[in-house]
Write a structure and sequence with these properties.
By secondary structure, this protein is of the alpha+beta class. About 35% of the residues lie in helices and about 20% in strands. The structure holds adenosine-5'-triphosphate.
Length: about 525
Amino acid sequence: MLLAELAEVSARVAATSARSRKTALLAGLFRDAAPEDAPVVIPYLAGRLPQGRIGVGWSVLREPVPPARDPTLTVRDVDAALTGLARVSGAGAQGERRRLVRALLAAATAEEQRFLIGLLTGEVRQGALDALAVEGLAEATGAPAADVRRAVMLAGALQDVARALLAEGPAALAAFRLTVGRPVGPMLAHSAASVAEAVDKLGACAVEEKLDGIRVQVHRDGPEVHIHTRTLEEVTDRLPEVTAAARALPAARFILDGEVIALDAEGRPVPFQRVAGRFGSRVDVAAAQAALPLSPVFFDVLSVDGRDLLELPTAQRHTELARLVPEPQRVRRLVVEDASDAGARAAAEEFWARTLRRGHEGVVVKALDAPYSAGRRGAAWLKVKPVHTLDLVVLAAEWGHGRRTGKLSNLHLGARGPDGGFVMLGKTFKGLTDVTLDWQTERFRQLAVADDDHVVTVRPELVVEIAYDGLQTSSRYPAGVTLRFARVVRYREDKTAAEADTVESVLAAHPGRERTDGG
Ligand SMILES: Nc1ncnc2c1ncn2[C@@H]1O[C@H](COP(=O)(O)OP(=O)(O)OP(=O)(O)O)[C@@H](O)[C@H]1O
């Protein structure tokens, strides 16, 4: 497929607001695509580079290059060129990258150049595109959209499903089943303001401790154990104690879902940052394990001995879990069979208070009759935490003053907007430790797309968790509101920008905001 076709469809999809029109445009594109184009076309449409970071700065992209007259570049040519670029390293790397980028741009027409520059700077990012691409693919191949969605959920990657669908048609979907050894997107939660609200919404439910560690999905097939994080990154070699725990369980094949935490001598949870430290790729695993042994705590089971349990209701999956996993390795939970029973509701409140006293983050309340919605933020899981936090994307940062001279400090924070872009909700320089300041200054230098000596604009890729005290009306910000007392809790490198909170959900969480800053 020619890059020109992709660039044109991408621009037209961005320019129309009608969902059906967007889907039709994408379906047309997929009808023209070869199966081998799928692993490039799908991420490019969403504005992602399959290579991840390739280290091309704004200064290089800003230098004009005369465009080609006719389109000749294919999407696979571009992918090969960017793979080459990503591999450049060592002395003279900057010059070589510049040469390669300019050669690529010289082969592109003016419209293709615009698309490529947008792709390299992160500006063509279209957050909602994967969902639309599923519908476009369904329309192009005649497969039911729900089946495509389920296959993606179970395959973990849209491009794999797309490639198979384009090659073989709808029959290819049958091959995407839950498979031990192949990670699936974990089920995620929505938020509720209180335990009472969550119980009201869900009815019969389980209230579980919300453990503040790292989400893990553990697959065992005989002696083989594989562990993946919530972004499906494989971390098996960093967690030998989890592998050992999985091998000690009384079934040979299973998939478990849980959280890895560390407990101190008093049995209280160790702060998240220390647990996260065990996941760095350069960590000496044996030494780190000796210094901070981790424990897996499981809260769900997706498959056992060849039985796929995804469609079973929570209550039955939990019975299976209890059969497989001994008590200390299972999350603590309290079942509310009847949501109208005042005694049961009081017990749920007491469970919440006790969980917080034990040092945990909050609770997750789960509907007893719900299946496991892999890869989705299901309405059947509601998390309740005492402090409001949002996951926002850093759009830019300001050079600091005084003690912070030379450091990038004040963060511009964005939530996901309806059109796949980001809407700025406020700024903060609070809550940043010296170590985080140094780290973020370095990361922003890598992500910079513009620097006017005051504000450095960055590719919108880093997700940061922000605590705040509510919203206030403000005409200075595009959504008409800004965050009150925003402060950094931590960076969420386990999340992508596509998983950040949306403006819509932020506004919905604060229906009664009244305070005004007059600005
Ligand atoms: N008992 C539990 N059941 C489900 N998830 C749990 C539980 N205990 C801890 N968790 C963690 O809470 C998360 C659920 O919240 P959510 O789906 O919104 O993810 P998140 O955005 O990573 O949440 P947060 O930022 O609040 O930790 C899970 O991803 C998991 O890591």
